[in-house]
Amino acid sequence: MPRSPDSPQIDTVLREVAELARPRASAGEVADYIEPLASVDPDRFAIAAADLDGTEHVVGDVDDPLPIQSISKVFALVLAMQRADAADGVAKELWRRVGVEPSGDPFNSLVQLEHERGIPRNPMINAGALVVHDVLLDHCDDPRGDFVALMSELAGEPVGVDEEVLEAEGGTGTRNHAIANLMASFDNLTHEVDAVLADYVHACAVAMTTRQLARATRFLANDGVDPASGRRILSAPLARRVGALMLTCGTYDAAGEFAFDVGLPCKSGVAGAIIAAAPGRMGLCVWSPPLDEQGNSVAGHLALHELSERLELSVF
Ligand code: GLU
Fold first, then answer.
1. How many whole angstroms separate alpha carbon 291 and alpha carbon 209?
2. How many angstroms separate the alpha carbon of residue 68 from the centre of ligand 1?
3. In the annotation, is 270 catalytic?
4. Start-to-end C-alpha separation, the chain
5. Nearest-angstrom CA–CA distance, 157 and 117
6. Would you write out the chain's pLDDT as a tens digit for each of its 316 residues?
7. From residue 292, how far is each of 26, 143, 250, 257 by CA, in Å?
8. H or E element: which one contains 144?
9. Quick check: is 33 catalytic?
10. Three-class DSSP category at 108
11. Catalytic residue selected from 17, 40, 72, 73
12. For ligand 1, is residue 289 a contact (CB within 6 Å)?
């Protein structure tokens, strides 16, 4: 693996930040709406930074798989952008069905959706992600397979689904069903509600490690090109738009706080991982299962703040 000249400094920063952030996990609670998440060891902790030159800096449990959960929303959007761009164009396909504004409401809220006639605020909340999966059903013969293939390509190795999480999620979706049905009532879902939900839940149950998630985020820090393969994943303008949505909408109701504290496009998931893209520098992922009230990893938030400050990563 190549080592850039500032590797030793970055390795030291990662170790120091891990030491500082890890104990903060005790201030949070792990998600308990499904058993596989409720029973996770709250002391799991990992930081991975994947430089654009291929250097990887890691500390902690970076090779333990976790369900990517809401982080899947970023990559489902990427896949939909790829397909829509190649067909009728992203503006025509996507942005008339889902907005690009922060919601200021919980990720699974129904209230705004009713007022706004079934058009979700953005693709980083559940309603928006369901529209994205509806679009994928139009464009992919095998949306689940295509999603897993994209994640495997970006991770640089095959990834799969956590079957236990998949099964457990299947029994919990009453609110997501309500969201999907509400959107269908406004004609903003074109496929069967159950088919859309099944694909969404499948994407949430994809299991990846912190290291793989950091790699998968790199192309967003590299104008849309995966530095590992040189393949363009998205055009540069579209990659910038994904970054903008992550920055403004990617961390539940705390996107303002993350912009303030971290200053990077981030996306968090209920399993306690947060990805971040540092343009021109690296893809990052931090993982610590205990969450704060907004649903973001407590120790992960602090770790990203410290990394951003110490390595001068903020986009501002
Ligand atoms: N499977 C979860 C749900 O949609 C994902 C939640 C999350 O990570 O925010 O309810």
1. 18
2. 9
3. yes
4. 31
5. 41
6. 455 667 779 999 999 999 999 999 999 999 999 999 999 999 999 999 999 999 999 999 999 999 999 999 999 999 999 999 888 888 888 999 999 999 877 767 788 899 999 999 999 999 999 999 999 999 999 999 999 999 999 999 999 999 999 999 987 789 999 999 999 999 999 999 999 999 999 999 999 999 999 999 999 999 999 999 999 999 999 999 999 999 999 999 999 999 999 999 999 999 999 999 999 999 999 999 999 999 999 999 999 999 999 999 999 9
7. 10, 32, 15, 13
8. helix 143-155
9. no
10. coil
11. 73
12. no
Q: Given ligand 1 and candidates 32, 66, 69, 296, which is best to mutate, with the most ligand atoms within 8 Å of its CB?
A: 69
CB 46 within 8 A of CB 15: no
Does residue 113 contact residue 181 with C-beta atoms inside 8 Å?
A: no
The pTM (predicted TM-score) of the whole model is 0.96
Atom of ligand 1 nearest to the CA of 295: 9
Long-range contacts for 32-36 (Cβ within 8 Å, ≥24 apart)?
33/172, 33/270, 34/165, 34/168, 34/169, 34/171, 34/172, 35/168, 36/67, 36/162, 36/164, 36/165, 36/168
Is residue 209 in contact with ligand 1, taking CB distance under 6 Å? Answer: no
The token pair at 302 is 């602090």
173 is written with which tokens?
């979706």
The reply to whether ligand 1 has any atom less than 6 angstroms from the CB of 270 is: yes
Structural domains present in the chain: 7-67+208-311 (3.40.710.10), 70-204 (3.40.710.10)
